[in-house]
Protein backbone atom coordinates (compact mmCIF):
# COMPACT_ATOMS: atom_id res chain seq x y z
CA UNK A 1 0.00 0.00 0.00
CA UNK A 2 1.35 3.23 -1.08
CA UNK A 3 0.93 6.19 1.22
CA UNK A 4 0.43 9.52 -0.32
CA UNK A 5 2.54 12.15 1.15
CA UNK A 6 1.19 15.62 1.25
CA UNK A 7 3.87 18.12 1.23
CA UNK A 8 3.19 20.96 3.62
CA UNK A 9 4.35 24.34 2.62
CA UNK A 10 5.85 26.52 5.29
CA UNK A 11 3.52 29.28 6.43
CA UNK A 12 4.32 32.73 5.27
CA UNK A 13 5.12 35.23 7.92
CA UNK A 14 2.41 37.86 8.15
CA UNK A 15 3.40 41.28 7.16
CA UNK A 16 2.72 43.93 9.70
CA UNK A 17 2.15 47.43 8.55
CA UNK A 18 3.88 50.20 10.36
CA UNK A 19 1.49 52.31 12.42
CA UNK A 20 0.06 55.16 10.38
CA UNK A 21 0.90 58.63 11.50
CA UNK A 22 -2.02 60.93 12.16
CA UNK A 23 -2.75 63.69 9.65
CA UNK A 24 -2.17 66.34 12.28
CA UNK A 25 1.28 64.97 13.03
CA UNK A 26 2.09 64.76 9.32
CA UNK A 27 1.11 68.41 8.83
CA UNK A 28 3.21 69.56 11.78
CA UNK A 29 6.25 67.56 10.66
CA UNK A 30 5.88 68.86 7.10
CA UNK A 31 5.55 72.47 8.26
CA UNK A 32 8.59 72.21 10.53
CA UNK A 33 10.62 70.58 7.76
CA UNK A 34 9.57 73.23 5.24
CA UNK A 35 10.40 76.03 7.65
CA UNK A 36 13.82 74.58 8.42
CA UNK A 37 14.64 74.08 4.71
CA UNK A 38 13.47 77.52 3.61
CA UNK A 39 14.75 79.33 6.68
CA UNK A 40 11.36 80.87 7.39
CA UNK A 41 10.85 81.86 10.99
CA UNK A 42 7.88 83.42 12.68
CA UNK A 43 8.48 85.87 15.49
CA UNK A 44 5.53 86.94 17.56
CA UNK A 45 6.24 90.07 19.55
CA UNK A 46 5.84 89.76 23.31
CA UNK A 47 3.00 92.29 23.25
CA UNK A 48 1.06 90.50 20.49
CA UNK A 49 -1.87 89.65 22.76
CA UNK A 50 -1.82 92.60 25.12
CA UNK A 51 -4.49 95.20 24.44
CA UNK A 52 -4.40 98.72 25.82
CA UNK A 53 -8.14 98.83 26.52
CA UNK A 54 -10.95 96.41 27.14
CA UNK A 55 -14.25 96.47 25.28
CA UNK A 56 -15.42 92.93 26.09
CA UNK A 57 -18.65 92.58 28.03
CA UNK A 58 -16.79 90.65 30.74
CA UNK A 59 -14.33 93.52 31.31
CA UNK A 60 -16.81 95.12 33.70
CA UNK A 61 -16.67 91.97 35.83
CA UNK A 62 -12.87 92.11 35.73
CA UNK A 63 -12.88 95.76 36.84
CA UNK A 64 -15.33 95.02 39.64
CA UNK A 65 -13.24 92.09 40.91
CA UNK A 66 -10.07 94.20 40.65
CA UNK A 67 -11.62 96.82 42.93
CA UNK A 68 -12.46 94.17 45.51
CA UNK A 69 -8.96 92.65 45.35
CA UNK A 70 -7.50 96.16 45.69
CA UNK A 71 -9.65 96.75 48.81
CA UNK A 72 -8.06 93.58 50.23
CA UNK A 73 -4.61 95.04 49.54
CA UNK A 74 -3.81 92.75 46.58
CA UNK A 75 -2.89 89.69 48.69
CA UNK A 76 0.35 88.08 47.51
CA UNK A 77 -0.05 84.59 48.98
CA UNK A 78 -2.18 82.02 47.21
CA UNK A 79 -5.40 80.89 48.84
CA UNK A 80 -9.13 81.40 49.27
CA UNK A 81 -10.46 84.80 50.32
CA UNK A 82 -13.98 85.66 51.44
CA UNK A 83 -15.98 87.70 48.94
CA UNK A 84 -18.77 90.25 49.50
CA UNK A 85 -21.42 87.90 48.03
CA UNK A 86 -20.77 85.34 50.79
CA UNK A 87 -18.78 83.05 48.50
CA UNK A 88 -15.01 82.86 48.05
CA UNK A 89 -12.46 83.83 45.48
CA UNK A 90 -8.97 82.50 44.87
CA UNK A 91 -5.58 84.03 44.24
CA UNK A 92 -2.93 81.80 42.77
CA UNK A 93 -0.07 83.97 43.97
CA UNK A 94 2.79 84.84 41.66
CA UNK A 95 2.13 84.95 37.92
CA UNK A 96 5.37 83.90 36.22
CA UNK A 97 4.86 85.55 32.80
CA UNK A 98 6.74 82.58 31.27
CA UNK A 99 5.59 83.36 27.74
CA UNK A 100 6.88 86.92 28.07
CA UNK A 101 3.60 88.47 26.96
CA UNK A 102 3.76 91.19 29.59
CA UNK A 103 6.66 93.53 30.29
CA UNK A 104 9.77 91.91 31.75
CA UNK A 105 11.42 93.16 34.93
CA UNK A 106 8.03 93.50 36.61
CA UNK A 107 6.51 91.16 39.19
CA UNK A 108 2.93 89.96 38.76
CA UNK A 109 0.24 88.26 40.86
CA UNK A 110 -2.85 86.47 39.58
CA UNK A 111 -6.41 86.64 40.93
CA UNK A 112 -9.66 84.98 39.94
CA UNK A 113 -12.53 87.14 38.72
CA UNK A 114 -15.63 85.15 39.70
CA UNK A 115 -16.45 83.97 43.21
CA UNK A 116 -17.66 80.44 43.99
CA UNK A 117 -17.91 77.89 46.77
CA UNK A 118 -14.63 77.42 48.62
CA UNK A 119 -12.63 74.64 46.95
CA UNK A 120 -14.58 74.65 43.66
CA UNK A 121 -12.73 74.38 40.37
CA UNK A 122 -11.28 77.55 38.92
CA UNK A 123 -12.39 78.94 35.57
CA UNK A 124 -10.29 80.70 32.93
CA UNK A 125 -10.96 84.32 33.97
CA UNK A 126 -8.02 86.06 35.65
CA UNK A 127 -6.83 89.44 36.78
CA UNK A 128 -3.11 90.15 36.70
CA UNK A 129 -1.79 92.86 39.02
CA UNK A 130 1.64 94.26 38.15
CA UNK A 131 4.11 95.75 40.62
CA UNK A 132 3.87 98.91 38.47
CA UNK A 133 0.18 99.23 39.44
CA UNK A 134 -1.18 98.17 36.06
CA UNK A 135 -4.07 95.69 36.13
CA UNK A 136 -4.83 93.31 33.27
CA UNK A 137 -7.89 91.17 32.62
CA UNK A 138 -7.53 87.78 30.90
CA UNK A 139 -10.81 86.09 29.92
CA UNK A 140 -9.06 83.08 28.40
CA UNK A 141 -6.41 81.94 30.87
CA UNK A 142 -3.54 84.13 29.69
CA UNK A 143 -4.04 83.93 25.93
CA UNK A 144 -5.06 87.60 25.83
CA UNK A 145 -4.53 90.46 28.25
CA UNK A 146 -6.66 93.60 28.41
CA UNK A 147 -5.45 96.63 30.35
CA UNK A 148 -8.09 97.77 32.82
CA UNK A 149 -8.49 101.44 33.74
CA UNK A 150 -7.27 102.43 37.22
UniProtKB/TrEMBL annotation:
Keywords assigned: Hydrolase, Nuclease
Pfam family name, one: Ribonuclease
Ranges annotated as spanning the membrane: none
Region (Disordered): 1-20
Sequence ranges of Basic residues compositional bias: 9-18
UniProt xrefs under InterPro entries: N1-like, Ribonuclease/ribotoxin
Nuclease as UniProt keyword: yes
Keyword Transit peptide: no
Superkingdom of origin: Bacteria
Record's protein name: Ribonuclease domain-containing protein
Organism from which the protein derives: Actinomadura gamaensis
Biological classification of the source: Bacteria, Bacillati, Actinomycetota, Actinomycetes, Streptosporangiales
